[in-house]
Write a structure and sequence with these properties.
- A hairpin with a 2-residue loop joins strand 21 and strand 22.
- The chain has 2 domains: 217 residues, 7 Propeller (Methylamine Dehydrogenase, Chain H); 106 residues, Immunoglobulin-like, CATH 2.60.40.
- 29% of the residues lie in helices and 32% in strands.
- By secondary structure, the chain is α+β, with helices and mostly antiparallel strands.
Amino acid sequence: MLNKYPELRFIHEDFEGKIWLGFGSKGIGYLENKEIKLLTFKNINLENKSVSSIYHKSKNNWIINTFGNGVFLIDSTEQVLNVKDTLGFTSPGAFISHIEKDGNVWFATSTGLYYFDGKRFAKIKSKDGLMDNSFFNYLEDKSGNVWLPSSVGIVRLSKQELIDFVKNKIDKVHPLLYNEGDGLLSNQCTGARHSAITPDGKILVPTLNGLVEIDPSKLKTNTIPPKIVISPLLYNGQIIPDDSSHVFSSGNNQFTFQFSALSLAAPEKVRFQYMLEGYDKDWGDITNEHKAVYTSLPAGKYTFKVIGSNNGGAWNQEGDKLSFEVLPYFYETWWFRLLLLSGLILGILAFFSWRSRQIVLRNKELQEQIVLRTQELSIANDDLTNQKSSLENTLTQLKSTQTQLIQSEKLASLGELTAGIAHEIQNPLNFVNNFSEVSSELIDEMDEEID
């Protein structure tokens, strides 16, 4: 029957006793009459989503964890909420979900531990105090502790501390790590998605080298915080005794802080957290390193602080500290800045004084030019006035000449007209005279013929 579905990843028995199966590429299936039937949803296709674990909360309510595709919350109306998008992380490997009686959910993923109260998501990561970011399961024991199998061992911390953190009452958690030094067969809790708690409260966790059984009731915790000590400062590789001056010049310098925790019980499990006050904005990640290095620090006053915990998770919050000062370059000193500011002010005043003199001189030149131009304009105006008067006289003479010419032309035209009229009168008189002469000649010729 399972030969058809070789990628079986998870088996889940729901509140009704029904067996559900999670497949890598087929989504979700269930057993019915010894047959596997696949479940489909109208708003999401679970094929090739690499299902890692499934939980049937109630009728038609599902939590589906996947490798690389986040977490899908499906409600009774088959509406889908992709936790990957809501939390803003990229394709996490969500290994397991733990549902509490009040409906709140914890998610163990490859990017941290997540919490969802139905409205808001919260995340707890290594910087918040956890030893790792990748957790394969979430288990609660009868004593109010949470167990988180990881790739560095098994992390235990207080459930109440987790609640206080996600509600912003505290800013860090203080877990306890169990690893090979405590008897684990391997730090790699491979297969820990299938961890379990037995009816009598024992915790079973699969590891790379076998199954581990933990009885929380028999565990003893070291509750004495370790003493934290900072060794003498190393400046550019040279030891600076504690009674020496801790004032250094600026430059390409290197400050090395070495520290330790006086804990004889499992000293390899001591954890530290440090910050350089005046440079770091917050505490760094929890680490098992015994050294911190800072280079090329700017001028200022600094205090290196370090706190630590023992193998039982008991933290010395007082820790130890070391203060020192880095002197500024000469151009960073207050007197140089004051001198520079004074020079700048004097320069500005000198510029304004010079500029004022330039403006006064320029105004004087402009006034002289105005007087000169006024005189030139006055002379030019007189010339124009004289030219105007001369032109007016010339115009008067032209008009008089024009009048005389017109009168002469009128008289000449009248003479021509009179001559023409006289000519025209003379022509008829000549005709009469000529006619009279012709008539006289004809009469004479007629008298001769008669005779």
